[in-house]
Amino acid sequence: MRALALGRRTYALAFALLALLGLSSMATSANAATSRESGGATVVPLPPPSTGGVLPPPVQAPMTTPLPTAQLSADGRSAIPPAAAPDPVKNAIYAANQITAKPYIYGGGHRTWKDRGYDCSGSVSYALHGGGLLTSPLPSSSFMRWGLAGKGLWITVFTNPGHAYMVIAGLRFDTSGPGESGPRWRKTMRRPRGFRARHPLAL
Question: Which residues of the chain register pLDDT less than 70?
Answer without folding.
Answer: 1-61
